[in-house]
Design goal:
about 1400 residues; four-stranded antiparallel sheet; three-stranded antiparallel sheet; about 5% strand
Amino acid sequence: MMGASSRSTIATASSPANQPLQASMTASSQRNMVGATNLSSSVIASSSSNQQQRANNSMLGSSTLSASSQRQSNIASSGTAAAPRSGSSSQQVNTASFMKKTTIDPLSPSAAAQPNDDFSPLGRPTIVKVPDETSVEVSLDLSDVTATSSRRAASVKSDSRISPKSDVASSFVKESPATSLLSSNNNHVSPQKQDTSIRTSLLQKVTASTAVVPYSYPKSGPNFFNAYEFLAGPNQPLPKRVFDPIYKTVPFWHLMNLNVYLRKLRLDQDSKDPAYHYDILVKALSFLGNVMSQSLPQKDVSALEALVDNHLAIEAALQLIKILPHSVGAKAADSAFLSFLNIFVPLIGNLKPSQQIVLPGGWTTIVPGSGDVKTTTHLCLYILRNQGNGMWSFTICNSGPEGLEYHPSSIDENSGKEMKQLALNIWDIPSERILDSTFWTLVFRLQIYPHKRNGPKILYEHLLPALNSRPLLSNMTSEAVEFLEIPDDPANTGRYYDLALLALTTTPSRPAEGNNDVRLSTKFASLLVKNAAVSIAFRSIENAPPSSMDYEDARILRLTGRNLANYASTMEAISAPADKLGSTLTETWNSLDRLLKKITLAASKPMDQHSHSSIPQNDAFSKGEIVSLEAEKNSSLHPLFGRLRRDDFENIQRALMGDPMPEPILIPVVLTDSTMPAVATDYQSASSSLQRICHACSLLLQQRKQIKNAAAFAASGAQYAFTTTLPMPNLDPKHCFWRSSPMRRETQCMLLFLIRRMCRTYVAATSCVQKSRGLIAIQSIALACAACISDAISRVVAVDDPSEFSLHYSGLNEGPTEAFGIEAGSFEKLAANLPIYDPRLCELRCRCLDYLRGISRRVDGTDRNTIFNFDMSMSPMRGDLTLLHQLSIQLALPRPSHNASPKAFVNNAAKLISGRNGSIIEVLPEFEYFRDIVFHFKHAVSGKSPTPPNSDLVDWLPSHATLHWTTKTSNPEDDTLRYHVTAFHSHDQEFVEEFDKKKNDKKSSFLSFLTFFDKATGDHSKLSSADPTNIVNSCSEKMLKNKSKPILLSSEDDILHLSTSELPTFGGVLSPSDAERFLQFLTVPYLRIPLVLDFFANGDPGRLSALRTKSLQSIVDAALFEPGLWKPADFSLQIEEVPVLDEARLEALLATPQGSMFNEISKSPDVLTDCVIKILDRALDMDVGRYVKDSSSGPMILYAIRLAVRVEGYLKFAIRSCIAGKPRPRGLETMEMLKVESAMKKIRSILDSQAFRILEYWVEPSRLKDVDVACLVHAHLIYLFKNISFEELDFRSLSVLLSSQVYLTINHRFSNQVYDDLQDTGDPSRPPPSIQIAQSEIFDIIQSHRYHVLKYMKIHPDKANDAMEAVVRIATGTGSRTAPSGNNAVVSRNWNSISHATCYGRDVPDTENEKLR
């Protein structure tokens, strides 16, 4: 940083002799911030070394300034980052464009920070220039509007006389392109003759508004220093700003606390650009400056003159913000920063005693881990005041949230809220320290040069204590401390309106200072400003005629008056001297009385023929003697009859209403076709089914505004196509559906094209539905099935025209080639730690992993060449290079020479795979289809969201999921090409981390699995909700209060060392001892299923009641239905020692082929089934006859039903998979069929005989009037029949599935928020939200049963008719599922499907119009 002679050097920085200093500043800015320990001593040392020099030369010599003024063009070029465009000196101004009203929306960051085409203001707020004496009307707010005809483009003449200090600084500002926008040129040459008539008309219009000539301040003299003129230029008046009307502007709403309007505003909280924050601060300061300028000449508020100096201080602050190089970057800021200090140090040196100035402050911090790309900015305001006698005070105004921990606190005796000294004062600062440029360099450096260590610690702990060599809190004095309420609204803090008001109303002075003025409190000064703003608002409606005010305007002003009265009533006797306090409160009441009377008159209803005074009031109607409404022709006695008149309807009312919106055309969607089988039987049916499902899902997503839950239906339809309609491939070609029969090339290409299209549809649909951990498991398995099926199709050698890609990929091409494959990557780890409630999907996971392992390994166990390993690297790898080398030879494509560098081969392959070089994709379209399908699969298991952040409300379409491929270099130093893939509005499709097989997945630090939903880095080994580390760090009371660092738990010993506050009690439903025992069970994944179920089924009944909580339900579901690690078929590890000390080896030995639940059913089903039956029995015994939201019995009964249904599904699937006479599936070889079947029947018997009756009794229309509870119960009625097969369908199951589905569709709105997050900071003892079942589960049940339900209705029309009548009764509330309410007879009608092909499954009764049938 600058040394002892820095101040004198800065004064002559433009001379050639000082070029080394500028180089030193540049080098210094590129270094890190100096150490915290040396920072204070550096400031003090620099101050003491300059003391003698400043005693002899307290001001810059006039000769030095004169010399500087002769080189102003050089100074201007060194003081900014960019020079003005050539030709700006002769810039022509269009008069007509200046005469137009200028309306700018200051709430738009893009508009506010838009760079000027004619200048380079370094990201400054937009300045609008107009001819002399012409006002500009602004709709909401404007940072600064200067009345001038054209900016000064030519340099100041060298022979111009410049007074010391202020003149040279102001002329310097004018010469800088970054600050020339602030100056006004009185000696301009008009570009063309002004149109007098237009000018006069505009001036009359502006004069008729509320514009008032701004307050004029005296010139600088012996006892007064005009800081604004020093910066803006000599004889420069305050800017004219017009807010018309003021009460419609957002700053006015903030000032008067009109929260009902502020809540409607949307603040861009994600903006990290420093210029955005400074622009908002400028808007806030400009508004307060306008209030002061308009009110001081009017003398509406007599005590407002006490804030005259404060007003001038914030006007000077606005000029300082314009020239502060806060947004130009570190490289361009050096010269501009040096020029800023050239202006700033002389500025504060001219302040007179008892005079203050407001300075921009704060810090800009680089977000860790983002390089230099992302920054966060926090702004404060500093108040520098000359106390006299060589002493100064420094006040930091901070409205939070950062840095407030350093401000003293207090508790309000009335409200109990925490109060803060938002304006922290540093007293008794010697002049030699406050005038030392070294200190200011360090202070402003925090704003200009972003750094990861910038923050409140450097400012509060090192810089501020160095000013007076005292601890920070030692500056507190009882006379000067004022505690204020902390702004808790993030919108207020973000727009810095509270900060600007605090800087205007704070006068840092003490009784010991020696002046005669009595100190006014900040709260009282704020009342003065509010009174002034209300007076301006009153003047804007003072001449409003009766009945002319809009209702919304009157509402704003009434709320303003109410809030002002409430605020004034909180004034205390010590807020101000008695005379000023009394007179101000009197003015407040008078102002409110005036305002209320005017609003009452201006907002009154217009008179009609009955209320006008000229109408005699002695008729029968006025006397109330009307006995009949009969009247003569063309007359009426109805008092409001006139409102029914429609005179000239077509030209008046019709014109006002506009043309009616066309009714949307609803295209029917068919998700199930009666002519197509549920499972494809040949290539033709597979292709046709895919084509129809793709078309139906596309129609659903395109018509989501007309079709409720369209995205959920589309997601379930696409998932059903991948997991059910298309058969899974087999490693043996003879038994593989896709390779056992001949296939044509066109069929092969069409199938791959349709699968890729279905992948796009599925990704887009799942991005629009409710997020849940179960959905992520379903999505990863469905896309894994798509990748496996596509792999099998790509290996097919077509019988008519074999694809070169298929020949080489399958290894069947001539020559020394071998087959390639794709790897599972992160799929194995991800699917092991997510709950899978559908046993069919759990079995598909095992089959996918078996298939992917089989195609990626040779017979001898070695690894094959694999392609498209995007999760390992976004650059081509060995398998990609080998395949492309073979294809290039086969297709005669140019390729690098044999002696080229490896980088040349990688770059060539990257261009071919990405399509940047379209030689392969043009010839082999199936290569592109397969590439995209694999990418969708790999990205789905990466832990990274495909959509941009904060896009949950966007209606994504399949076209948005299209992958756009190109290449880019890794970094400027390495020109190796990488794939660059974008989708969903150009969002980068990135991966969380590169996959490493040799990497130890057990990390020493806790990474919360919640980041999986937050689209941030997530560790797949820590995704499990049953992991004790996740549970403690997410659910313990100490962690919920953010009072502890994350804790790592790996064994029972770690749990025994937890304190009581670290043990999760889930809202007190578990005792600490039970919580400790429960966590210990979870440390043994292989045994946790029977241990956890026995823990709740037996022992203390209070444990069973604890299952009502959302967090416990998620943990138990994870412990039971997370499949765990997968054991491949060629697993050969053996137990060689006991105990097994290697944790990774132990986990591999305890892995299961089909998942933990199937392993438990096969090995030991007794404990599992007995505990589930006992939990279900005990829960149903607690029924109280209805569902009570605040009772534990209702949520517990519903969860017991869900648990029993899920376990029953696994039992039933295991029984159906073991077919007599055929080999059993791997992992179920030892299952006892009779025992499992008996347990399954017992569970179903309890569900049918008890659970079903309880739910139907709860949902009886005559008893239940709460629609939300009815939706909850109907969802569980559907869930009861989740595992029913076609053979088991009957009237009861059919009517329940149809009626409950229709009821939910009509009455329930599904949310798209994360459903089963483990952490619950609201009320941990509450049950899951909404219907307590994830949206994906409900719609998957509906989709899986749709084909069989329609088939059953077609075969049994009588039962179908009764079921449809039950649907009508349930949907309309006219009866129960089995009978109508009251004495209404049972209606029996014949229901038939509409005959049109697109309406299959849409039934209408025979009483409807025949055209509908």
